[in-house]
Amino acid sequence: MPWWAWLVIWVALSLLLLAMLVLFAVSLFFKAKAIAIELQHLASELARLDQADRTFDAQRQQIAILTDRAELRRRREQVRLRALVRKRERMSASIQRAQELVRVDAADKQWFPAHNQATQHNPR
Question: N or C, which terminus of the chain has less Cβ within 10 Å?
Answer without folding.
Answer: C
